[in-house]
Design goal:
By secondary structure, the protein is mainly α. It has 24 helices and two strands. The protein has a two-stranded antiparallel sheet.
């Protein structure tokens, strides 16, 4: 089916972003309201499209819209087109729904910022780019949105770029994502070389005739792209530093939008990965490594936003791992992505609420006992906490447990390894999130005398309350009657594969709940007593390494930055001595020969006459030699 309405998803937020930038200070008084209304309007359009899609037969639910012919060279034609199907509508509703709540929250949170209008312009630019990413009907169209998200995230992370460390954090995120973008661009080239097409439909129709080698190469490059955008190993180093942006940015980028783009890319490319088992295995391995990597880092962070950022890295790792299990895992990856959008956005906004009441303090060791003074923030954050650690019947219990179950059901040694890894991640998650709750809202008071913690205004806690409701109910609603599985099946499981069930779901749930109890118990035993306002220095080497993000920056410096500097020095010297030396040599020889020739220009007529005579004699002799 075709539709003429899809363009409004991108056009409205893009127009509002441009308008607020072009009007400048003239829009300061109303720009934030206008941007929020536009975001809400796009959500309403998305809800209407969802209801209309639900009422159509399964085979007619996907709708497309051609905007214009983009590339037409010989037999290669690419339209700038949009595709709205069961997968993309889930992202549209998440992006615009959570995005609108973050807009509302930001009205109050950024109320004292002189550049609030510019901030809202960037928010709408980000939403427009993210919507293009999930609505593009080809890898090229997706790539435009992919790069737009990179630009918007750079602008938002570095919004307070008057602080050098914040500007550096924005550049770090931008550069790390460019590495992943290289993978996406190579994947597009492989697709064109092997299929003569870059559209999802065009590739899917021809994928059966492609070699496994080509599909594996394309899958690995798509995985590289996903690791950059979704902060997965080994391109995860930028995520913690990205907390430099205003807290609503953290909620938008790290909960519901940018970091989920990699999960969307792999899920959308299911026809590639399902025919490239080695690439699928690489996806599972990267996800498993990252879910433990992020969880371990989260145990050592005292900065509340960086602890939540490490948690995001870990939870996205669960989603990436699930996509690697193919049709058995795609729906559960998206399910966890959607529930995560609720509880993680709610917790980031909760962290912002705490900072709002604590003079922008982010160190949890200088919190403590805030539950009595900030009851709404405590409750909403607490519901998100119960959801993320997987306490029944909260959202994470349904979504994360299904990923753990899918991992075990992979069977054999792989099933044991990846299932155990997912369970270990659940234990660590319960530990570090309980640590965050205890250090922030309970225990002894540790804040400075100049701090006056208080509850946030209505425009801040109201979105938190809505997200908390999602943290409670979204898991059940998505899994009830296998709703999410059946909804996504036409996109990610067209052949309706029969999935192996090696462990009964009740057994997996019991294991997962036991893991939660273990993690919570360890955290309570460690943090229920009096805490210091400063981090202890006499800690184990494990803790020190975790505080330094498991040496990820050190590794990047050792493997890439230092060798890059040496290579640059060699190239500079080569350019100076060899290339420029050759140029200077030609110039010097020209000047030298000119100086020699100049000596012949004496200005005496008799010398010129002699040269003419000698030349004539030489010519005469040459003629005689030739003729004789």
């Amino acid at each position: 089916m075709t539709s003429e309405n899809l363009v409004y998803f991108i056009a409205l937020p893009l127009f509002s972003s441009a308008l607020l930038m072009l009007l400048g200070r003239k829009a300061d008084k109303w720009g934030h309201i206008f941007a929020t209304l536009v975001s809400a309007s796009v959500f309403v359009i998305g809800a209407m499209e969802f209801l209309a899609m639900r009422d159509r037969p399964e085979e007619s639910r996907a709708v497309t819209q051609k905007l214009f012919t983009w590339i037409s060279v010989g037999s290669f034609n690419v339209d700038a087109g949009l595709l709205l199907d069961q997968l993309s509508i889930a992202f549209v509703l998440l992006i615009t729904g959570v995005g609108t709540l973050i807009h509302i929250y930001s009205i109050a949170y950024m109320s004292h910022d002189r550049d609030r209008r510019r901030f809202f312009s960037y928010l709408n630019l980000f939403i427009a780019a993210m919507l293009l990413l999930v609505l593009g009907d080809s890898y090229l169209n997706l790539y435009v949105g992919w790069e737009g998200v990179g630009l918007a995230s750079y602008l938002l992370i570095g919004f307070w770029n008057q602080k050098p460390e914040y500007a550096t954090a924005a550049k770090k995120a931008f550069v790390a994502n460019r590495v992943g973008d290289l993978g996406l661009s190579i994947a597009i080239m492989i697709a064109f070389a092997n299929f003569g097409a870059v559209s999802f439909i065009g590739i899917e129709e021809k994928v059966g005739g492609a070699s496994e080698t080509a599909l594996t190469a394309m899958g690995l490059m798509l995985l590289l792209a996903a690791t950059g955008k979704s902060a997965q190993f080994p391109l995860q180093a930028w995520l913690g530093d990205a907390m430099a942006g205003p807290t609503p940015v953290s909620a938008l980028i790290h909960a519901a939008t940018m970091v989920t783009a990699g999960v969307y890319l792999i899920t959308r490319s299911n026809f590639v990965f399902d025919n490239a088992p080695n690439a699928q295995l690489a996806v599972v391995i990267i996800g498993a490594i990252t879910l433990l990597f992020g969880a371990i880092i989260g145990t050592a962070k005292d900065d509340i936003k960086k602890a939540l950022a490490a948690s995001t890295m870990s939870q996205i790792g669960y989603m990436i791992m699930a996509t690697g299990f193919g049709p058995a895992g795609y729906a559960f990856a998206i399910m966890h992505l959607l529930t995560h959008g609720f509880f993680k956005a709610g917790m980031f906004l909760g962290a912002g609420s705490v900072m709002h009441g604590m003079n922008d303090e982010v160190n949890m060791r200088r919190y403590g006992g805030l539950a009595k003074l900030m009851p709404i923030t405590t409750i909403t954050f607490g519901l998100g906490y119960l959801a993320i650690i997987g306490v029944p019947p909260f959202a994470g219990y349904y979504s994360k447990d299904k990923i753990i179950e899918t991992a075990f059901n992979a069977g054999g040694v792989q099933g044991i390894i990846f299932g155990s890894t997912a369970l270990l991640g659940a234990i660590i998650t319960a530990f570090y999130m309980t640590r965050v709750m205890m250090m922030t809202f309970f225990g002894n008071k540790r804040w400075a005398d100049d701090a006056h913690p208080h509850e946030s205004p209505f425009l801040m806690w109201a979105p938190m309350a809505v997200l908390a409701i999602g943290s409670v109910a979204s898991g059940y609603l998505l899994y009830s009657g296998k709703a999410i599985v059946n909804w996504l099946a036409p996109v990610v499981d067209k052949h309706h594969h029969e999935h192996t069930e090696l462990l009964p779901p009740i057994v997996v749930s019991a294991l997962a709940v036991t893991a939660v109890v273990i993690g919570v118990g360890i955290a309570l035993a460690k943090y229920r007593g009096e805490l210091s306002a400063t981090a202890p220095q006499d800690v184990s080497i494990f803790t020190r390494v975790a505080r330094r993000d498991l040496l990820q920056d050190d590794a990047n410096e050792f493997m890439f930055m230092r060798p890059g500097q040496k290579l640059t020095e060699v190239l500079v010297k080569t350019d100076d001595k060899v290339i420029d030396g050759m140029v200077r040599g030609v110039a010097a020889s020209t000047i030298g020969s000119a100086r020699g020739m100049r000596k012949m220009q004496t200005g005496y007529v008799r010398n010129y006459a002699l040269l003419i005579l000698l030349g004539a004699l030489a010519a005469f002799v040459a003629i005689l030699v030739v003729t004789l």
